[in-house]
Sequence to fold (469 residues):
Amino acid sequence: MIRITSNDSVHNCEGASRREFLRVGALGLGGLTLPQLLATRAMAGEGDNILTGKSVVMLNLQGGPTHIETFDPKMSAPNEYRAMFGETKTSLPGVTFGSHFPMLGKLAHKMAVVRSFAHGNGSHASAAALVAAGGNPTKACMGSLFARVAGLNNGETGLPNNTLVVPAAMGERYKDLSAVPSRITGIGDLPQAYSAFDPSKGSDILNDMKLNLPSGRFEDRRGLLAQLDELKRFADKGGVESASEFEQQAFDVILGGVSKVFDLSDEDPRWVERYDTGHIKIPKGLPKKKKNGKAIPGFSPEALGKQMMMARRLCESGCGFVTVTNTGWDMHGNAFGVDDGMPILGPAVDKAVSAFIEDCEHRGLSEKILLVITGEFGRTPRINNKGGRDHWGRLCTLAFAGGGLNMGQVIGQSDKTASAPAADLVTNNMLLGTVMHTLFDIPNLRLRNNLPAEVQRVITNAQPIKQLV
Fold:
C-alpha cells in the first residue's frame, strides 16, 4: 500500500494528524482498490461506456468579471455604459471584444461568446455556487457531478477526475495569492469523497499508495517527484516482482500518471514562454491608494499561465474536469476598479487563455477539451464614481472554446446598455447541459440503473445551448 504524506501536522476536532498530500489507489467504488478496479474493468470489458472521452476546463474569474470590458464592449452605448478602454477587432466580422483581449480577438473564430447569460443573483457566495453547479437542485458543482458518474479517478492514469488548480498549486512562490475555492467546489447532497482534488492542499479521495515527504517539503513539487523517482527505482529493481498483473498495472499507473502530470520541466520552453504571465505585476503604490488595498497583492495573475498549462496537462493525462481560479474581478473600486484592475487582469487572461487554445490545437486536443470562461455574475452597466462597476446578476460573462462544439459565433444579444438579455436568453441549466453533453453519452447514461436517481435526472434533463451542439 503506497500513500504520499507529509510529516506536518494538521489539527482538527480529533486532535493532530499527519497531513496527506496524495493517497492513490482506493477509488471509492464499493471499496475497490485501483488494482481491483482494473481487474474488474478487464473482466467486464468496455461495453456501454457512458463517457465521451472529452474533458472540461472551467476558468472561474472570481469576484464577478465585467461582461462589458470582456466580450460585450457595447461602444454604441453612452460613455458611462460602454467599455472603459474601448474595443478590439476580432477574427469574426463585425464582432469586437474589450480592448485588453487582442490575442483572443485573433482567435474569436475558435470561440463562442455568449452575450445573454443571466441568472439574477448578485451575491458572491450564492451566485458563485449557483453557476458552478449549473443551478442543479443537488447543489453539487459540475465537477463533483461528473466524478459521481464517471468515478473518482481515471481508470487508466489514476488521476482524480475532478481537480482544482489554484495559484498555490503552482508552487511555493504563489502561496500568498488568493483564491476562494469553497464557493465553486461545493458537493451539495453528494458524499464528501466527491470533493475536488486540490493538489495545493492534499485530498482524501485517494487512499492506497503511501510515500512520506519530509516536513517542509509538502508544497514542494520537486520533493514529491523525488520520492516518486525513488519508488520507481525500487520497482525497477524488482521490488514488485510478486505483484499480480493488475497490481503491477496500478503501480505503473501511479508512476506514469501522477508524477508526470505535475512536472512542468518537460514542457517546450517556447510554450512555457507563450503561457507565462509572471511579468504581469501589481503596480507599486496601488494598494495604498485604495480603501481595501491590502487585498490587491493577492490578486496578482502571475500564476495564471502556469495554471492553464497545468489544466491542459491534467486533461491530456485523463482528468475529466478541471477548475482554474483567478481572483480580483470584484471591481467596485474599493480594491481593484475597472480602471486599474482590467489593465492587470485582462492581459493575463488574454495571454494565458489564447496560449491554452493554441496549445490544444497544436496537440490535437481542440476537439477533446472544452474551455468554459465564466464567474459568479457580471457588473453594473453604469460605471460608478470610483472607476468601477458593482454586482449585477442580470447579465453575466460566459465564453467557450473547443470541445467539438460549434465555435466562431456570438450567441444571444444584450440590450442597448448591456443591462439585460435582449435575445436568446442562456440560463444556468443550459450551461450545465452544455457541459454534461460534452462529457457524457447522454442516451447511454439514461439506461444506467446504478446511479442516484436525482443525479441521473439532473444530468440527463439539462438541455445544452442549442447553438453550440
Notes: The radius of gyration is 22 Å.
